User: Fold these one by one.
Assistant:
Number 1:
Amino acid sequence: MNRSISYAEAIREATDQALGLSDQVIVLGQLVDTPSGIFGTTTGLAEKHGADRVQDYPVSENLMTAAALGAALTGLRPVVCHQRLDFMIYSMDAITNWLALWRFKSNGKSGVPVTIRAIVGKGWGQGPQHSKSLHAWFAHLPGLRVAMPATAFDAKGLLLESIFGEDPTIIIEGRGLFSMKEEVPEKPYRVRFGKALIRRVGRDATLVALGSMVPPAMRAAEILAQEGISVEVIDPRTISPLDRPAILESVSKTGHLVVAEPGWQSFGAAAEIIAAVAENPASGLKSPPVRVNFPDSHTPMSMALEKLYYPGEQEIAEAVRGTLKKS
Amino acid sequence: MEEALIAQYHPADEMRCPIHFCIGQEAVPAALSLLLKPEDYLFSHHRTHGYYFAKGAPLRELFAEIYGRATGANGGLAGSQDISHTESRFFGGAILAGAVCIAAGAAFGLQHQKAKGISVAGFGEGATDEGAFWEAVNHAGAKSLPILFVVENNRYATFSDQLKRQQTDNIAERVAPFGVKSQSLFGNDAPLVWKTLSQAVNSVRNGSGPMLVEAYTYRWNSHVGPEDDGFNKYRPQREIDFWKRNCPISLLRQKLEKLDWIDNGEVSQMESEIAGEIAECFAFAKASPFPSEANWHSRNFSNATPVADALLAEEESTDFNPSQGEAKLAPY
């Protein structure tokens, strides 16, 4: 029997189970051993598994990521936590010059299963330094897997898949999702990388939504259903690897494509998804695809501007209506 | 060996990768080669060749790697500056302090698992310009990690004098406040280098915490490649002449001859054996095939997940209810 638990509880449960399943698993991050525990995702784990396995870390993000790599060479499976993705930027050398290419440059002899959890803030004035979702940057790098779980079920399954997989993985966690609940199996389970989920079956338009855009995309599909528009909602769940075949198959059926991405528009993941469809001669596209993104602007603090900045279900629904009118 | 590589490097143009030759800086890696054990990890800067030997990695695979052949230590993917030999626990890399941080992580991993072995980071004084280096020093001291930092201070980051970049040239003194014991020395006196590193390795091995050894030494060639880069006018001829007079290999030979521990016949025999080994390595590299298959995906990602397969169940997602509101962020 599955219980309904929140996204944050699902992450905590996955981490707890991973620590229990294997001594190789360790958790590193600033304040992971405190009662507040990274928004409740690590609360109590240091008490249960030991402060050496759930370890508070100096504010040395570059070292933390590189050290996780070094620890992985000795057989560990580190989980690195960043309360704000923005701080993780200090570790871009470790990620870009070392972690992403470690397997490649060893000619496949040495793999480094490092999991990096990166939380993206949204709302209550997080502003430009607490809200950046740089998933597209990371997905641009060969050798890195990038997951964007949208629900509690996926948050648990993708985290476990990452911890016990063999490649470095960055998991982008939308802070706004943390309270959302879903039925989640108690046992440890996996969600495969590169396997999209059709969250709603439809025939008139394909709506691909990433990470924190999944709930508003599903609400948009509900709104449109009441107008007689049947929308197929696809959640790729990971953008590296990206399940291009699932998206192509859906578009070949519907002929219309809208992509909702929680990040800036230019050079982003939505552009990549649209390109993957558009460059396929058999895509079946009947109208120009449309992107729903954040504006190409840094995030404003003021609550008045936050409302204008973040697109929601109405903007997504309008985008779908727009593509259908153009056909 | 480096001289033999130089003789072939540009003339034949079959080694098409940057090589940072370590002529003049032989003492530190040579000493480490006598002190490190198979369970130890060694991470090296871009001037990799000496450290590669220090960990006992196979010579012919180094040559094949530089020649870009499939039989190279990394199948021709890494080249001289990025070479690694996983089985020997040797890892090179070109982005300086990043490798020192990884070494700190390996030390943490060994300590955490109460495993045998220590972690050694070999780097130049240029790496200590980078903030990440000090993050590693801080953590090593705070956690008493089993790591040995070895600075080969050759004074120049490419063409930039250390005293243009740093207030003093004594890194050994600067790590002390972090709880990292340290020792500096003339790095071209091979017996002294061996003795100092031997004490340092033993200290780290015995659980006495991290240590840093700063060996003042000098590279003969330009920063990269065998050419003379004197046109950059970054180091005086007098200085070059001083260090060439103090070649670590010549100094060692003079000392051994004086002690009557070695004679010309033995030296000639060693040189001839080494020349034979080098010739065999060249032949192996040149006879080896180039890598041919692209395989880009499997070169960058794993093809199997044995641990996940063993531990995790397959489950299907149930219906998610999207009508729930987002988390309302409490203040902060």
Number 2:
Amino acid sequence: MSRVIELAQLMQGNEAAAEGALAAGVRFFAGYPITPSTEVAEIMAERLPRLGGKFIQMEDEIASMAAIIGASLVGVKSITATSGPGFSLMQENIGFAAMAEVPCVIVNVQRSGPSTGMPTAPAQGDIMQARWGTHGDYPIIALCPSSVREAYDLALRAVNLAEKYRVPVVLLMDEVVGHLRERVVLPPLDELEIVNRREPIETPANYKAYRADETGVPPMANFGIGYRYHVTGLAHDEKGAPTNDPATAEGLLLRLHDKLQRNLDDIIIENSRSLDDAEVVVLAYGATARSARHAVKKARQENIKAGLYQPLSLWPFPAASVDRLAEQAHTIVVPEMNLGQYRIEVERTVRGRAEVVGVNRANGELLSPDEIMQAILEVVNK
Amino acid sequence: MGDQKELRFSGTGGQGLILAGIIMADAAIRDGRNSIQYQSYGPEARGGASRAEVIIGDEEIDYPKVSNPDVLLVMSQEACDKFACDLAKGGVIIVDSTYVQKLPELNGRVYKLPISQTARDEVGREMVANVVALGAVVRITGVVSKDVLLEALLARIPKGTEDMNCKALKLGWELAEP
């Protein structure tokens, strides 16, 4: 047997997300189990104690989110996992993490909603909630895998980005990717790039917790090693002290955005297939990207110039890439397991330069390649 | 695309069909092939209709759902009524005759085998009917080799149940003797 076959294994998406987070150095999980994310918690409960980490099942998702923020503040890479109803409960504290710049990762394995919806059925209904779920003009990163390997890679990347930019990162999965088992070959652990938060070089007496240098990201002192500072959801100055001063409050908010905006090249990640000469582009993410990839292959067999663009990071929005697609393609097809949440954002960027067509389903079923192919044919035969 | 083989194992929640699907997908990987396993299920745990789907191929597998299985295992009358008509043209349907009495006209190869009965009478545990079924499915279809099936089985069952499961696999293999 070749080395590749020996290392190949059957793994589930939720399992891969948990393993990717552990490989990134996560040693704390707090959560409240919910279908279809429960396997993440199960695996963390099994694995963390053996790695010297901590697993805690909280009383609800509000407390779970609070617990990972607390653990992160003392220097432990932290994660939680949930689905729609739990994600709703976490929103207030996600805003706190964004405002207080506490690195943390929230896995949301999307299921059919609104409310409790259909717990075992897939959906992509939380796209806008991941961006705008909590109040205020906050920045956030959301990553979205379409395969088991991507679940591993993006979980690792989510932790790295959270640490590097001191921002909450949402790993936005869906039930299909979460429960799918497929063949994966994982990268060797010693080849992984692991990012740790930058620590201050100043003495505790000279440390200002929210004073950023040229990177826009303040070095972070972990609690318990002598640095004392104030952490608050209120608008605050460089020392972390609450303020109502308009200039200070605005400066803080602009910096929170700026630290991501000036690093979009480092944050945004995408895949493509047959895109070079594509006149019809299918823009798809998550499990839907698998069906879209199949439809693009079929279209190519019929000599239709179709291509796939798959954003792996949904937020910040990949505006520069979509801008290029708008110049290149006559039509952009956006299939989603929702009523068109990401399509709105695509249309906003395309501004009429190409036609934007949605293929939408919100009935708990994965869109099929045939449905996407049908949309491609309608565009081509028009 | 290409030469993908699509399998669906269907029956009742509690018959171990999802585990059978996992073992099959695992075996295919041990055979050096690509595979994927997915299932649709409702909120019910035991007693409701259950199915597991496996796709085996050599290329990238895109869409994880099976619409017209090349290999269909049915282990309850309800599953038979619901899924028999999905069988791909010229496909193989393996029916647990312990629970399935009525079978529609089908364009495929039909095997009626007393799978659950065999598990109950010869192993003393109906719980291993899924493994009996795996033995039969693999002998009839040759979709993976016997060696890797055994390897995958041993890797996925609880410690202490090896003898019982190996016996079940062997019984399934013999049940499908041409």
Number 3:
Amino acid sequence: MYAQAFFVAVFGLAAIGFGVVVFRTSSMVRSALALLFSQTAVGCMFLAMQTEFLGVLQIMMMATEMSIMAIFMVMFMMDPGGMGGMDMTHQKRFSIGAGVVAAGVAIVVAFWADWGPVTAEAPDAAMQTRALGMELLGRSMLIFETAGITILTAMIAATAVAIPVQTTANSADKEDTE
Amino acid sequence: MIEVTKDLPRSADGLAMDWMEVPFGPVFPGLPGGLKLTLTLDGDGVTEGQATSLVGMINESEKGKEIDAETFIERLASAMPLASVSYRLLACLAIERAAGLENDSATDQARAVALECERIASHLGWLAQTGRQLGFAWLTDRAATLQLEIRRASGKRLLELTPALHALAARLGRTPLLKSRLKGIGILPSGTAGLSGPVARAADDAGDAWARLWQRLDEIITSLDYIKATGEPGLPVLRNIGRGSGTGEATVETPRGEAQLSLILEHGQVKSYRLDTACNHHIGLVATLVEGRELGDALVAVGSLDLSPWEVLV
Amino acid sequence: MNLAVVLVALLGSVWLLAVIEGWTTTGRLRLTATLLSGLAYLGRESIVPRTPDRIFFETAPVLLLIVAVLGAAVLPLAPTLVIADLATGALFINAALAYVLVALIMAGWGPNGAYAMIGGWRFLGQLIAYAMLIVMPITAVAMRAESLVTTVIVVSQDGLWNIVYQPLGFVLFFIAAMALAFRAPFDLPTAPGELGGGVDAEYTGVRLAVLRLARLTLVITLASATTVFYLGGWHGPLLPPWAWSLIKTLAVAVSMLLAGRYLPRIREADLMRWCWILGIPLALLNIIVVGLLVLVVP
């Protein structure tokens, strides 16, 4: 019990620590990978809380996602290595305010919400995986399928918007600007 | 975002990114040693590039300094380590013509066989280099072994190697992925200026790296047939020119294309000379071949030209 | 105890693989050459490039080694000889191997060199190509076993190995595993002829030794995964179970090695195109076929 609490605390602090690093570094790749390791630490918290499937899934998904995010950050930022001393922050006052309010709300909810009775004994990992599968393909199937289709539509739409339209007027315009 | 990137040059995919100028060579595993390729990279794509030779030959004699004919031949042959027999032959021919010697059919035949032997060896060397560039370890090993054997071989031993060379060509025809790697890469249509040698002959076909591979493999077989029909190779040696004088010009079809040498001979001494080689023209094609290509394709295209940096004149 | 045995087996396989690799390239079978050249790396100067991202540069080889070993941790050598018999073993190995990408991006970005950086980002593109072909065939394997536990997956192949039951899945997984281990012909991130070593290019001395060890361990881990998922794991006559696991793993690893020797490096664009246009539909077909077989055949 104490060991479990200890590991949850360690991984939780690691998640916060890496989260801080995300904003403390000027290197885009470091920032993206710090976010990755922050999320990995959250995955480890799941593992420490005996939810094996969710933990492993979190750890797996984040590696790819954050790496892809890293390449986009490198592509679109002027100083991806953070060696040019460029200031990357903006709207400081607003973001501090928003951060403080969000943290306050989270703490209030954490202490005031009724979390129900503490589970004495977690079901074993195989049972959890089975229960999760039943949940995903049963009651929650519609929600997940809707979310999936929505994301797919958004991806296709984003790609379509990003591809420049090749018309004669467009190419003439391009030559003018050059 | 738009404000900071709007003045950056756009690449083919429309994304504005930092471009990097990256040197490939003069010592790079996928390119012939001494060739320096400078590519401007936009991610994994090449926006522009050019090739220069760091070991090229100086194309004029020092003013007023005459060179002994034998020394001239030795110098030219050793200045072109990738095709020394061809250039030795070229120098011999030019000097003999300047001295006014008639052609001698027996010598010519032995010399021609030696030239064809070098052509086979040179093409095998190119295959080994291509294997290294493509990460095709088997090809590198096989072609390099055969190349060494051919360089040491007599006419009879050459004929014994014939089945091995046929097998090599057949094997390459069967290798998966090779065609998709080379087909349509580095296209040089037949009208392109400055083409010579296998590159020009492949241009009559499809003109891509795949066509050049097969052109060279075909030339290996053709040369073998010629050697089979003709006889033993004989290293070109200068015939007795006495203290002849005059101007001479010669052309030799080296493994990489046509090489031309004209010189003025005075009392058995080379007074001045002028050389022109295929690689000297081919190196200028690199810029158009690499532009807008992916890095891997650009390097394959440059490799398929079989540039010898030694044969570039500076 | 299991931990020690599996680690020794892993190291032994790596050593054998390195010996065989040396044998195929030099033509000479020298049992100690690998160890000696490994030791020589330790004695050599380990150069740090100018203005590196020091954290990434130092972490990458170690991270690659760790993920390769973590992947091997859930793969059984024998019914009880496994470091961690997780309930989500088949998913866990995916999670561990996803960090190969992270390690390569770190190794590419860290040294502050163009060849390495292109190599590192190239692997991201490669992941987009192979990732689905790792996950989907494993899904079909888990469907037959009705479990994600690796030992149960091996037991489910008693009598009929998955290579016979779902040959399509095996072919896809084998190819994708080679791409994941960035072995030739999928060695785009290192590509000696194109990038002069790519992510390897800036590493020297002891760091290179760790990187090489990690790459070989990764090959063994993937070969072991192929064995567990498709070649019936420890099943086999006469010999003890662990021996069968090791023999099959080495056979798969050597075949990966040899396949690369006789093929030129694939073009990135072709890899992407074939994986998506051909590979993913085939992987889906494999899932459907296996699903039908599981439902229809008792």
Number 4:
Amino acid sequence: MKSRRFKWIAGAAAVAVVTLALPASAQTTYNIASIADFTGPYADIMKDLVGARRATVDWWNEEVGKGMGIKIGMKDFDGRYDAAQTASLWPGIKAELNPVAVLGVGGPDVAALQGRLPADKVPMLMSTAGYGFAWKGDPWIFNPRPTYGHEAAGFFEWFRSTRGIKGPLKVGIISSEASPAYVDIAKGAEKFAKDNPDKAEIVETIFTEVQPTDLTTQVGRLIRKGVQVIDIQTNTAAVVATKRALQALGKADIPIMMSSHNGLIASGKAVGGMKDLEGDYEVYGMAVPTEQKTKAHDFHQMVVAKYKSQATWSVASVMGYNQTLVALRAIEAAARKVGADKVTGEAVRTALLTTPISADQTFSILPNLTYTNEAPFPVKGLTVNVATIKDGKYVIAAENVPVPTIAKW
Amino acid sequence: MFDTIDFLNYLVNGSLVGLLYALIAMGFIVIYRASKVFNFAQGELVVFGGFIVWWMVIQTGLPLFVALPLAMAVSAIFGLIIERIFFSRLVGESSFAMVMVTIGLLILIRGLILLIFGPQVRPFPIIFALKPVIIGDILIPRSLLIGAVITVIVGLGLSWFFNNTRAGLKMTAVAEDHQVALSMGISVKRSIAFAWALGAVLSTLGAIIYLSGKSLNFLASDIGLSALPVALLAGFESIAGVLLAGLIVGAVQGLVTAYVDPVVGGAVGSVFPFVIMLVILFIRPTGMFGWRTIERV
């Protein structure tokens, strides 16, 4: 009797162990390194950006990865938007996580790792626009958007035709030498103007501090040169200082063009209200986070409701979603090609270069992406979206604006 | 083609920015005079003062005439707390030890600011009207102009205080030598505490002028670095000298930014004050008005 009961218990325990062990043994865990900036110049947008990355991974693990037998682990590292910091972190990241992909924040991460990643065979996915200094073939770093120069040029063309400007659009650039990426941003727009003198003229590029003391004199100089739009793709502090200078000079109607990381909402908060940015613009090649119902907005609301995401619907969260979705779709594609238990960083990179990612796969957060071996960003079919402040409201001004060709600089 | 009006605009605006640097540099000097400590955390004190003003005006809605003096008082208390916790225990210790503490203080204050106020960029209240003062063809930002007047008054006032009042002379004695000052019955701790309170108040005043109508986050501390060449040019002991040094550094920086930057396509103007600083350290380490120390062995 005793022996029979023992057999039953042992049998039940064995079944329980096998049942519990089966899914675990069928699931392979891969790691993604999430480089962030918690204590540097973009610390203010990290809550949304990192929150969106985490929510996307949670969603993918539950609704895609489970079915494929893959689980993604992610760990954050504070790169401080500092190339030296990111470079010093990298050996530890590699040893600790052995990641199949890295999510980067910006130019310093590119500058720090572009020489290391090909040897370590780990691709890095960015959320930002691309950089001229990283515009090389055989990429290991991938941007979902063209360079800032491309995005600005798309805006220049759209603005010029919208306003019916006959001659070249007179552009003033306010940038900074605090980061190689900032300098590169200015160079891209300058290159477009140089090659298209009938379309754009850079009246002056002003390099200033990250937190400018006062820009009244410099902006006054731009005004005297007949500037029609001021291009600031660096940070919100520069936007605020420029706006104050324009207001002081009675020329607040000269529009400022911003990018994603220093866009209208962030700059509006920094300047003290959206009304100060009436008629200004932001431009980038990804979804604009207005309150309008879109597929991208629906995805955000879904992860907030279902996966308790803390990210708000903002440009920063759109950036977090875009790079994580590209990384996860590439891991999916790699797993289909090499097997769910054989995914490596190299396989992820190969998948990126050989498998297009459709707009549907990114919930229209990004347009269709087809990477090639000639650049770190898709070189064909590039478009940008333009947002503005109209009657105090944040609205889309134009969608799918074509990006003109710019030669390498 | 050379334009005289442009030249004057750059010269005047550069000089005014230089006087703002001079105000921040006074914070360095006041603390150095009392404790022989070069305070690496001066920029962080500017940010702290800025956040106190932001919190009182924007968050609590206090009127400026209440908020600004209150912010100065809070800053003074903050300076006293720093002195009490960190520096009162270091009297008689080497300058090196104290300087290392200021580096730790920099990291600590930055961390506290991030913890309490967060990393977000905040709108700083408009303390001075945005409309510039226009004299002929010369356009002068109002905040910098008023700031320059305040800086000159504060600079001359402090110079008088240190050279003509009993308390100021005691602090000067402390600056000469802690042990000698103690033997003369002067409270070194009290002098150092007063210097830290004054240094923090000057930083808050600097923040008000620097940030009026602009944006604020922890990166505003960079102004501390910009003020460093001014303090070095003046010499770390001369309050009145810092005004002249500020004018020189600011004017040179303004002109270099206007005439050299567009030619070379870069921010030479931002680097130039540091070139001046290195040259000074090479030729005259004590600065233009610094005390020459004679050491007898």
